[in-house]
Fold each of these.
Amino acid sequence: METSIIIETIVKAIVILAVFSAIAGFTTYIERKILAFMQRRLGPTNVGPYGLLQIVCDGIKLFTKEDFIPQNAVKPIFMIAPIITAATAFIAMTAVPFFPEFEVFGYTIRPIIADINVGVLFVMGVASVGLYGPLLAGMSSGNKWALLGGARTAIQLLSYEVVSGLALLAPLMLVGSLSLIDINEYQSAGFTSWIIWTQPLAFILFVMAGFAETNRTPFDLLEHEAEIVAGYATEYSGMRWGMFFIGEYANLFTISFLISLIFLGGYNDLWFIPGGLAIILKVSFLIFFFLWTRASWPHVRPDQLMWLCWKILMPLAVVNILLTGAFVMIVGSLG
């Protein structure tokens, strides 16, 4: 029995690693096409039908490009930093239930690697460790622009992790559990039981923090596209550079699954739509929303980003916790 569990866990880990690595590459193509459509451009068109083979070309370029390490860099740390970013992004997925249970040849498969009772805490904790990747990359590059990018990484990710953590406290108080499966079951009564209806402010705060934690426009100060340099990744090339952005897109999918599971009913059936398809549609819409925002909103300055975090979002999150706590106490006393 233990051997079968170990084999099943290894297979799940390999599948998740392979599938989300491939999806991360395909999402770059989708993003370029959506941005091109919204900005009246064509996007990738030359390689393959509709430019679909552009993904293959990008992959070949990443694997064959020179792996350059600056002379003044701290080489061991410089080499490890991209691995930290990619590894933490995929490790965070281990406690996420992607789909409902299903059977294959009479064998029940649970689409989650590790069903732990503190799933939310595990995902948030591991994802937060990912900030060490860009931070160490900037500090070890021997480049002042990369160092500034690493510093911006620290202030942005640490600040908005506070907001995302506080935003989740209120829904967790209602559910009474840190397990993502329990949170999903809490919303099993249908569309009206979704937590977004009782916690709309927490939903907005968590989504905004998600933009910052996944380095998406308008909160993309880690690797700022409007600058000549590339922030913490200035000195990186080839697959080491690619690992940073595989991790970034993996985090994008993780945060989209979290939003779907915690606020949008998870993988419960939605009317006539089965649960597995329902959560795919929710995550797909959220990914599109992240891309749509990139095409529509300008970048913000670092001081504006910090002002929004500490003077607007964090106080709102604290107020929401107090109101939810009062509500839970009143309901508990009446019940």
Amino acid sequence: MVKLLLVINTLLTLPFGIDALAAPAEVFAQFGLKLDAGGALVARGYAAALVGYGLLLWLLRHTRDRAVARPLLLSMVAFNGIEAVIQGLAGVQGTALPVILANVVVHGLVCAACLYAYRGQ
């Protein structure tokens, strides 16, 4: 289950990060967010972190070492839980288009699955 969660989290982070590095305004526009030059700069910083995190998860996807798997699972709980809250607030407050709520569901489910796997480690 850990390997599957590492792959799922890679798919949530790496492609989005690459796209946001290349074209932050276009990527965030799909959620109804308009970025000025400063916003694009911050978005690219976020994107760089996603690329790095996605690569880490991908490269460690075959680990069977509990001392490696547990911290990775906890980091995925934190990432997905925080993303669900931030994006949920943006959707509810009208900062972003309601389509962002689909992301909230995905991040919430992945967070719960990672927490379940963490507890089983």
Amino acid sequence: MSPRWEPNPDIRRGRSVVYSLHAHLVFTPKYRRKVFTDEILSRCEEIMIEVCDSFGATLVEFNGEHDHVHLLVHYPPKVALSTLVNSLKGVSARLLRKEFPVHIRRYLWGGHFWSPSYFAASCGGAPLEIIKEYIENQKRPD
């Protein structure tokens, strides 16, 4: 009797494609200001989940510290990573400024929230569990 084949949840199928695309992203606020509280990080994660969903992507893991956030995103090949990043940063900046105006204004001014640069790494080579564990362990105890 042959072992039962179990589908790999990281491999997705489209009409004409089978894919498993993951990116590790790191965003920092403008001037690397320490703007994030636990409440703001939590809301930022919710926003990022919604944005990913709108692109057909999945936010696999999210974590952050006072001055940056880490994301592990599983995204479809029809989505340009730069387009996804611009939407993640744009929507989150707009909503976080609107929902936490007093706190954010103490750290950031001039209509900016995120630094224009970001880190992106393909996660095809490393086992995803290792990347997830790395992101989970980024938050240092205060």
